[in-house]
From TrEMBL:
Active site: 68
The keyword Metal-binding is assigned to this record: yes
Quaternary structure and interacting proteins, as annotated: Homodimer.
Binding-site positions, substrate: 7-12, 69, 148-151, 171, 176-177
Function, in words: Pyrophosphatase that catalyzes the hydrolysis of nucleoside triphosphates to their monophosphate derivatives, with a high preference for the non-canonical purine nucleotides XTP (xanthosine triphosphate), dITP (deoxyinosine triphosphate) and ITP. Seems to function as a house-cleaning enzyme that removes non-canonical purine nucleotides from the nucleotide pool, thus preventing their incorporation into DNA/RNA and avoiding chromosomal lesions.
This protein's record includes keyword Secreted: no
BP-aspect Gene Ontology terms: nucleotide metabolic process; purine nucleoside triphosphate catabolic process
Alphabetic keyword roster: Hydrolase, Magnesium, Metal-binding, Nucleotide metabolism, Nucleotide-binding
Family: Belongs to the HAM1 NTPase family.
The protein's name in its UniProt record: dITP/XTP pyrophosphatase
Source organism, top-level taxon: Bacteria
Amino acid sequence: MKLVFASNNKNKILEIKHQLPRDIELLSLEDIGCFEDIPETADTIEGNAILKADYVTQNYGYDCFADDTGLEVDVLNGAPGVYSARYAGEQKDANDNMHRLLLELGNNPNRNANFKTVIALNLNSQQHLFTGIVNGHITYEKAGEGGFGYDPIFIPEGLDKTFAQISLDEKAQMSHRGRAVAQLIAFLKG
C-alpha cells in the first residue's frame, strides 16, 4: 500500500516511517511533487489536519494522511495550542518558540501541559481521525539534543527526561504522535 504523508518535515517523516509496517510505502509531499505551503488556517488542531489531508487528496488525487500537533499548557489556557509551530512568529523557529514559552511561564510552579496530535486519514473516499495525547510538564530549561519542536522542554508523565533525551523507539512508544500513529496502523491493518 502507498500512502502520502502530507508533510515535508523530515523529523516527523522519520518518526512515522519508524513505526509503519514494511508493507506500507510512505511518500512525502516532495515525493509527489507538492512544493506549495499548504494553508493551516483552521482554529483547531483537528481542523488543520483535515485541511492538509483534503488539500493533497483534492489537488493530487492520492490517499493520504496529515497530522497537526499542538502543545497545550494549562496556565496559558491551552496556548500555544494550534499556534505551536508559529508561537514566536511566522519564521516557525523552535528555539524562539521555546524561549517565548519559558519566558511566559517564568517561575510559575504549575507547569502542567499536554501534547496533542490529530491525524486525518483520507482513504477510499472516506475520512478518519485519530488522536493521541500525552500529559506531562514543561521544564524550567532545555535538556537533550534529540527530538524537535518543544521536545527539549517537555517531560512526559512517568519519565524524568524530556522527549529530547530519549531514543526514537522510546518516544514512538509513548508520544502523542506515536499514539495517534498506532491507532492509524491498527485501522489500516484492520
